[in-house]
Amino acid sequence: MGIEGRDKAKALEAGALAVSGQLGKAVQRLRKAYNLSLSELSEHSGVAKSIISQIERNETNPTLATIWRLSQALDVSIERVLQAQDDEPFLEKTERRDTPMLVSDDGKCRLSIVGWIKTVEWLQWYEFSADPGGVLESEAHQRGSVESLSVSEGELEVEVSGVVERARAGDTLRYRCDRPHVIRNVSDRPAVATMVCILKAAAME
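Below the sequence we write its predicted structure tokens.
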């Protein structure tokens, strides 16, 4: 049996409010996941800060054009922005043969790029391996960048601006990488580590 008249209008209004509520939660969740302020999302999307705030608080029903602008700024599909579930499952696999690899000039150090391409502008991570005597020399990254090197096998040495520190299996070195830096395998056996580079870390004065 269909819904007619006033009851139909109430049902449509309830449905619109439910969708709007889901949209507000999704926009807020994605904005915070990208660590964006309301002002930054407004700048990226062209949608007024006040409108975004109203959307997140479920105080307005945005047009499709507004939803599209927000989805473009958040780098997601409109379908995902409108998705009701907060705990959408995500599972992605990259096989070893498809993992890009960088090799040092001496051919003794390898960086397998295991990080996600979507985060490459602010967060990168690698599986680092080095043969005995291997040296990886890197130029300075952008200002404020920090690198973390967690050794799982062997022993590695890091040099930054004349300061040298060594790390063995189980140790982690963190250092500014916004200046030239060098990683060396100073042991007589292979070394393996996980390297994480935060390109937009808090500015370090």
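The first strand starts at residue 101 and ends at 103.
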